[in-house]
Every structure is written in structure tokens, then in C-alpha cells.
Amino acid sequence: MTKVARTLNPAAHVVKRDAFIECALRLMQAKGYQQMSIQDVLDELGASRGAFYHYFDSKQELLGAMVDRIADQALAAVAPVVDDAALTATAKLEHFFEGIAQYKTDRKVLMLEFIKIWKSDDNLIVREKVRDTVVARIAPILARIIRQGITRSRTTRLNGRFSALPELSSGSSALPRDRFRSLTKRLLTSGLGKEAKWPQSSRSTS
């Protein structure tokens, strides 16, 4: 008898994977990441352990997907500003960071939990994910805005609040360590108030 190969429905795969991510975000906001277990997610969804491991190798891999989801949502929220040809570069930068801050303010409990995880040496994956997101997704957006400003004004001068960013105008997404730390700090803590204390250890940016 000829064995028929199982076909994968990509759309169904995305929907089911998304369900795990959205459920985990809700549970993390309700009880915290450390207190949330894979079994909690399974119970909430009525899913099997085998189904979970079909999409994620571990709880930490699920956490990485949660970071990606938050980045997707936050960047989607500010996309109209970035694409608005009528705005100056400085206005775009202002609205970009204001939009990111508002996104986090609206999800304050969840974002404070992510910062708590960021501080934990047991969750290096969060720091790596945030770094990768800043380098691969956010830095190019900021670089495009800055190049727009340079093209229009023939100068690299920017509002003082954005003085950490001109290096991006070269087209490279790399930032010096101290300026990368400054940018990451602003992206993570803006809009969250004094509760979002930034870790002082240099290991936090590694």
C-alpha cells in the first residue's frame, strides 16, 4: 500500500500557532511569566501537549514568539506615521516614539512583566529577541526616517531627543553599544512610568 504524505495547511498552521501565542500573552498578563506554565496554556486552549510541541520546542521559544508578536503589533500601530509623506523626519520620529510609548501604556501590566523577564539572567532569550528586533526591524525604519530628514534639509542635525540616532543614516543598522542601550531603554520603558526601572548591570545589554 502506498503511503500518502501528510500535507500541511499553512493557513491552519498559522491560526493554531497564533492561538498559543495570544493565550500565553493573556496568561502572562494575568499571572506572570514565571507563574505561567505550559499546562496552563494547554488547559486554557483545551489543547494537547503534543500540539504545543508541534509549534514550540519549549516555553522559552514560546516567549520568543510573544516578543515577536508584540513587535508586530507595536510597529503596525506606528506604520501610518512612518509612511506619511506629509510629515517631517523630526515629526515622524516624535510620533514613532510616542506611538510605541502609547502601545506600551495601553498594555502596562504585560510590558512591565516583560521588563521583569528582561532583568532575569534566566531569560537571556528576551534580551536576544529585543536586540534582534531593534537591529533587524526598528533600526531600518529609523534609518529611513533620518535619511528622509537629511535629504530634505541637507543636514544631519536632529532634535536633541534623537541625538543617538544619526549613525543609522549611513544605511547600517549597527549602533555603538552605548547608543544601542539608550535606544533599547527608550523603546522598552517609555510610557510605563517609574515602575519600569532599567537594570544597571552591563550584562543586560549582552
The span between the termini is: 55 Å
Coarse morphology: elongated
Helicity, in percent? 55-70%
What string, H for helix and E for strand, traces the elements in order?
A: HHHHHHHH
Number of helices: 8
Largest sheet: none
Portion of residues in beta strands equals: under 5%
The total strand number stands at 0
What class do helices, strands and sheet pairing give?
Answer: mainly alpha
- What is the averaged pLDDT score? 77
- The total number of structural domains is 2
Kindly describe this structure.
The chain is mostly helical. The chain has 2 domains: 10-56, Homeodomain-like (Arc Repressor Mutant, subunit A), CATH 1.10.10.60; 59-205. Helices cover 65% and strands 0% of the residues. The protein has helices at residues 10-31, 38-45, 49-55, 59-82, 89-105, 108-119, 124-153, 177-189. Helix 1 (10-31) packs across helix 4, helix 4 packs parallel to helix 7 (124-153) and helix 5 packs antiparallel against helix 7. The longest helix has 30 residues, at 124-153. The radius of gyration is 20 Å and the shape is elongated. The termini are far apart. Mean pLDDT is 77; it is low at 168-175 and 201-206.
